[in-house]
Amino acid sequence: MTASTVTQGVAELAARMRTDHEQIARSAVALYKTEIVDYAAATSEFLEDEVLAVTLRGFGDVLDNLAADVVEPSVEQIAGMEAMLMRRPHQGVALASMQQAFQVFSGYSYGLLPSYIDDEDPVQLRAALRAGEVIFRYTHEVIQVVTQTYLDELQDVRGDREIVSRNLLDAVLAGRATSPSAIRDARLVGIDLGEQTVVLVARAPTDGDEGRPRTLRTAAKTLRQHFLSRVGPVLVGVREKKVVCLCPVKGADDVRRVVDAAHAAAAELDALGMCIGVAGWRQRAGDVPSAYAEACEAADQAIRLGVHDRAMLFDDVLLDRVLRTSDVAERIVTTALDPLRAYDAERKADLVATLQAYVDTNFGVAATARAMTVHNNTVLYRLERIRLLTGRDPRSPRDIVFLALALRLQGA
């Protein structure tokens, strides 16, 4: 068996695998989603546009090196991969997740080799060994360069080494809360994991110093204290400039206590420049990845809207999204308060504030009067004035829903 014979065998192996290039890449991405928390929680658009593109590029580089019988990846290949992955720190993908993805990629690619060779042909066996060398060398070099790029891009990367219960946190966020290892590790820190969970995320704007490790640790302790006193033991950890809180629950009453605790903690975290997002209640451990994505989106919405005195629930985000997807609905609802604003400006009245207090106090006249420091009759008069100006009666269930939506959309 000559060197040229093996080289030819490697080139032929590359040609056979190239026919399945895209399918192999898609299968690798599916594995990322199964095994890595950041990819399990990622949107389908991100997986398709970002992750698949990188995987296609990486596998294409490997095939090119096999065809050329070159073990070391080229400078151009490394630079291309570096450019594609430079944004990952700003897309919420952890460094460990990126490294794990490349490890999954290399292991999966290597595991496919036997299906593309005749194991009774010594030339093809030698070609497969050579291909394995190329695959693992490429992965090793890319991980080194990409890791350094990531560290250069991400400030205060030392926080990664200070993450609380990182392995356990990642396991639960990936939907494996009921796995024996996760249950065991959780019990070691005094937490009983189950199928039902509420996920919270606290984070700060990306352009400030609030994401520094010390601030994140302080926020994590604050959340833990609030939930320990109101709900019970919860799993709190830090992931890439976000504090994540996983709250085991057993029913609707527990969920309500979690939300109340989140609202109470929001005021303290505001002093740290952070906002809280709360996902919807999940009753299956496998649904936690989507809950994590919801909590992140709710926290982002809280930052955009400047909501600091309470937690932002994903239900609120979802309602806003539904309303804003319809131009007609948004226009009708957002203009509903215009007559009240005009009246308040002209008469120095408080119709909008009264309506907001009425909604905030669950439509109680006496509670609204106390909140506004006025007589009950004054509240009744203002509610009637609102009806006359808008054509919608705040004491009608149907109309108050409409007016409450208008308050939400206009941020009144």
From TrEMBL:
It holds the Pfam family HTH_30. It comes from the Bacteria. Residues 23-162 form the RsbT co-antagonist protein RsbRD N-terminal domain. Residues 351-409 form the PucR C-terminal helix-turn-helix domain. Residues 175-299 form the CdaR GGDEF-like domain. Belongs to the CdaR family. This is PucR family transcriptional regulator. It comes from Paraconexibacter sp. AEG42_29. The lineage of its organism: Bacteria, Bacillati, Actinomycetota, Thermoleophilia, Solirubrobacterales.
